[in-house]
């Protein structure tokens, strides 16, 4: 059975196992005098989220955080990746501090330490204060300074106790998905806004690194998302479309961070829409990282779309088994990505798989939640990590996405990624079979 032949012994010494969540998806943004974020306003606008659902209550983690941390400890995990809601600590995005919000994260971090869990902090997992969104958000160059101030504020309070700090979660989603596809807050579909956001998100990362380093905060990184992108056919136009998608999705951020350049295939369409003198910012953007976070879920097949303007890419369903997001399951892509990043971009820099997991149609029978497909997914992806380590990647940890079933953004509460089932009527937590199997694995050393 899946996970039975795996143990800690199959991973390098000190390899960390953990689970990941994010603030908006679990806490309940309505609690604790938090300011509004652009996810609150996006979700309140008709047509943006399935069923009009929002994160005002979510999993009520804001009230139930102690027993949620117990679940992580009881699974035998080593670390917990969580994020801070910017609008909870700075309701207007700048200036005024909400002490109640900062105290919450203070207690949360202490709660992790009391349970022997290493806190892996992410500063930005998408909850931009609505007050900043109204001033242009990621499209406004000032966002870099707003974010650096916020980073300094949060790490000034928590930096002495967290094991690591990530600036931004998934800049592709922050910029492209949200300003070009319009699928996430702020829901724009504007190539110029997208080009500005693609650059400003990296500028903000660089400024925040600089600000935190000046204060002596250690172990700073960023979390990028990657997909295994391939052409659906070997027709030259499909091969070129897949290469364009690869440049925008997989190469834009890592090449800027490690080489100080943007890929030509992406600049071909974006350069005329970029902010002026963007080249002058590249030196700050490529400031050294202490580690890299990799989120990986799936393979995606691309074709040329003759009816569309640049970048003229469409996606087509592939033949592999899929998660309930419709995402093709392809563990080889994770091995390939980790090994390729080590070889081509980051060398020996520590890499963490900061998210990997799947949404499934779990079957709930009393206290038992059968999620055999998820178990299999975890098994095959952990083996892919082992293979990448054999190939030479310095992978130091793996965080399952997610601890709990939660608010899956524009999909609302329908898509369940958790190791722990959440009944959204009662908010009762029930560990799934995958949780129990992972806990057994984490107790084995040989
Ligand atoms: C990632 C996000 C995370 C969650 C998973 C399924 O893109 O970082 O919040 O939505 O996908």
Measured by DSSP, the beta-strand proportion falls in 15-25%
End-to-end CA span: 17 Å
* Helix content estimate: 40-55%
Strand/helix succession: EHHHEHHEHHEHHEHHHEEHEEEHEEEH
Structural class: alpha/beta
The multimeric state of the shown protein is single chain
The residue ranges in which pLDDT falls below 50 over 5 or more consecutive positions are none
Q: Name the bound molecules.
A: beta-D-fucopyranose
Q: Please tell me how large the radius of gyration is.
A: 21 Å
Q: What is the helix tally?
A: 15
Architecture overview:
The protein is 40% helix and 17% strand. With 446 residues, the chain is an alpha/beta fold. It has an eight-stranded parallel barrel with strand order 1-2-3-4-5-6-8-11, surrounded by seven helices. A hairpin with a 2-residue loop joins strand 9 and strand 10. The longest helix is centred in the middle third of the chain and has 24 residues.
Short précis:
This protein is an alpha/beta fold.
List the helices and strands and how they pair.
Layout: E1 16-20, H1 23-26, H2 38-43, H3 61-74, E2 79-83, H4 86-89, H5 99-114, E3 118-124, H6 130-133, H7 143-158, E4 164-169, H8 171-179, H9 191-214, E5 220-231, H10 236-259, H11 264-270, H12 282-285, E6 291-304, E7 313-316, H13 331-346, E8 351-355, E9 363-365, E10 368-370, H14 372-391, E11 395-401, E12 420-422, E13 429-431, H15 433-443
The structure holds beta-D-fucopyranose.
């Amino acid at each position: 059975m899946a996970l039975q032949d795996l143990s800690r012994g199959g991973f390098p010494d000190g390899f960390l196992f953990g689970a990941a969540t994010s603030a908006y998806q679990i806490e309940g943004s309505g609690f604790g005098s938090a300011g509004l974020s652009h996810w609150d306003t996006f979700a309140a606008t008709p047509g943006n989220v399935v069923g009009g659902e929002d994160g005002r209550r979510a999993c009520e983690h804001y009230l139930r955080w102690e027993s949620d941390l117990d679940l992580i400890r009881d699974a035998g995990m080593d670390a917990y990746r969580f994020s801070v809601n910017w609008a909870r600590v700075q309701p207007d995005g700048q200036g005024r501090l909400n002490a109640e919000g900062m105290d919450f994260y203070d207690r949360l971090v202490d709660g992790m330490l009391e349970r022997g869990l290493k806190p892996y902090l992410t500063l930005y997992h998408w909850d931009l204060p609505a007050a900043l969104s109204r001033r242009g958000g990621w499209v406004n160059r000032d966002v870099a300074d707003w974010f650096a101030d916020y980073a300094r504020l949060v790490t000034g309070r928590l930096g002495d106790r967290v094991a690591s700090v990530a600036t931004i979660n998934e800049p592709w989603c922050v910029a492209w998905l949200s300003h070009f596809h319009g699928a996430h807050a702020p829901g724009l579909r504007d190539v110029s806004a997208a080009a500005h956001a693609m650059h400003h998100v990296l500028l903000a990362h660089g400024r925040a690194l600089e600000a935190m380093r000046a204060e002596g905060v250690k172990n700073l990184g960023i979390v990028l998302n990657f997909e295994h992108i391939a052409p659906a056919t070997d027709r030259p136009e499909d091969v070129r479309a897949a290469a364009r998608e690869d440049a925008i999705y997989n190469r834009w951020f890592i090449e800027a961070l490690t080489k100080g350049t943007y890929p030509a295939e992406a600049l071909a369409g974006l350069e005329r829409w970029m902010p002026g003198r963007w080249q002058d910012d590249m030196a700050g953007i490529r400031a050294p990282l202490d580690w890299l976070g990799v989120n990986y879920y799936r393979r995606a097949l691309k074709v040329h779309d003759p009816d569309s303007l640049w970048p003229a890419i469409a996606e087509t369903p592939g033949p592999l088994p899929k998660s309930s997001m419709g995402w093709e399951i392809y563990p080889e892509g994770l091995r390939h990505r980790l090994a390729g990043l080590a070889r081509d971009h980051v060398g020996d820099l520590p890499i963490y798989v900061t998210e990997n997991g799947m949404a499934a149609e779990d079957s709930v029978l009393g206290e038992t939640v059968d999620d055999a497909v998820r178990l299999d997914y975890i098994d095959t992806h952990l083996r892919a990590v082992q293979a990448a380590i054999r190939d030479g990647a310095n992978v130091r940890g793996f965080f399952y996405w997610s601890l709990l079933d939660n608010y899956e953004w524009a999909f609302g509460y329908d898509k369940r990624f958790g190791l722990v089932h959440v009944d959204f009527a009662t908010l009762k937590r029930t560990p799934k079979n995958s949780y129990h199997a992972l806990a057994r694995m984490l107790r084995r050393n040989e």
